[in-house]
Amino acid sequence: MSEFAVGDEDFLLDGRPVRLLSGALHYFRVHEAQWGHRLGMLRAMGLNCVETYVPWNLHEPEPGRFRDVAALGRFLDAAREAGLWAIVRPGPYICAEWENGGLPYWLTAEAGARARTRDERYMERVSNWFGQLLPEIVPRQIDCGGPVIMVQVENEYGSYGSDAEYLHRLTGLMRKLGVTVPLFTSDGPEDHMLTGGSVPGVLATVNFGSHARVAFATLRRHRPQGPLMCMEFWCGWFDHWGGEHAVREAGDAAEALREILECGASVNLYMAHGGTSFAGWAGANRGGGALHDGPLEPDVTSYDYDAPIDEYGRPTAKFMAFREVLAEYAEGPLPEIPSPPAALGATAGVELTAWAPLDAVLEALGGPETSGPVPPTFEELGVERGLVRYAVTVPGPRQPYPLTVRGLRDLAVVYVDGERAGVLGEDEDCLKEPVAGYARVELWVESLGRVNYGPRLGEPKGITGGLLHERQFLHDVRARGLRLEALDDVGRVREVASRELPEEGVPGLYRGTVVVRGAGDARLELPGWTRGFVWVNGFALGRYWSAGPQRSLYVPGPVLREGGNEVWVLELEGTARRGSDEADAPVLRAV
């Protein structure tokens, strides 16, 4: 048993000053079988602590239905076994480039602008969630013999709101439920953020990527006493689909880290190891500069983050540069760098043998069809991650007029009388060719990830403003949703994707096998495919998209097995080639 405390100038462990050298590693972005290796990599880099967020939406997919909340406890046990302290950031909002910033879609649909405020119904939901979550943290606090030394209150709240009573109530709730270790907040080093996001009597920390002395000077204007800490040292950055891969030069990042430590401060590397946003959990941002109110910028599946430990768990040049800096602050020699996990023994092509059209997939695995005067949102259909087919009739006879989708979020593949008519998005929401009546129109709409940061957090998905033919709204809209989770059911997928492959590449669910010799970490390439999702042995790898910059999907070695492995690909746009064409077949390669 030990006591961890916040002193006037330092963190104190049993009264002795200590410096926290922490690294962010999200347990939910790393296959559980690989936690031990990644935590060992943190130790070898020179860190003494690991930090993780907790995504509420991953663990409570529906109100009152909880899913593997104990995963956090298992991760904290793994951290203790690795010889690391732990910092837990349970939100309830986490950002993290994660779907809806970690808030359940059903919660933000219910709460609207009252989310992240002291609203009674919202706080009741938070209290119920924390009642499930905190029992995984409380017995693992350092004063109980565990690794947890600090717990965060909310997350960068000063970037969003100014409800001081909300933060005060969250603090009280955590204390009531048994959190005894120090609490803290984290915000950008700007006056309005620190004013809006900090709590009297609770340690305030700051997040930044450079100019440590300036950032800490700002913090000191607000908090003259207390240990200095950069809770998020942004040593890399994340990528958006259709954008450039973000890279930060190792030497530049190492010098910024050195400046933090020269200030006498503690630090948390964000990210030490980013991992992967498996299963379509990647969020999205809004462009438009500081207001974050511009075009949607969906985040890629990889959360490599240009971190010192890359997506595959390998040390990078940045790792070695950080290790050199951190070694100067270590109490003894650093541990040896762990050997990398086993890699795939040999390149293996995926043989696709069966298929089902999207209509058949929706019929077998989708939710119930609804019919009403206006298009329902994803939230109203109970779809968190996935797609919705909207169907409407253009009455006739009538002359051709423009067909417009108002408030489209995010992408729609449109069919008129069974023929593909185009792909629409927020920036191009009108079909190029006018539509005459009578006509049958179908729109397959996909969510590209809910906004995880800024004032448009919690905005709904789907067709949110209606369908227009010229200036006339089209009513009597039928809708049916397909949740991505439905495709985790191996047996159902086998039954559905059982037809012979089509002659031409079309949208649909493709099923096949890949024979592995020497199971280990791999990457899956999909040449000639456009946009969709992949599963291997029922494990959801995430979204692929030819828009780049990500060109392959990470397949953790524990997902694969010797011999035959099942693969299915849900292609949404229809430019995939026939699976028998060897040049266009998916292929597994060693990392």
UniProtKB/TrEMBL annotation:
Any Pfam family matching the protein: Glyco_hydro_35
Domain of life: Bacteria
Keyword Hydrolase carried by entry: yes
Keyword entries, A-Z: Glycosidase, Hydrolase
Enzyme Commission no: 3.2.1.23
UniProt keyword Oxidoreductase present: no
Domain Beta-galactosidase galactose-binding: 507-565
Ranges where the Glycoside hydrolase 35 catalytic domain occurs: 11-328
Domain Beta-galactosidase 1-like first all-beta: residue ranges: 375-477
Catalytic activity: Hydrolysis of terminal non-reducing beta-D-galactose residues in beta-D-galactosides
Gene3D superfamilies: Galactose-binding domain-like, Glycosidases
Family the UniProt entry places it in: Belongs to the glycosyl hydrolase 35 family.
Protein's name according to its UniProt entry: Beta-galactosidase
Upper classification of the organism: Bacteria, Bacillati, Actinomycetota, Actinomycetes, Kitasatosporales
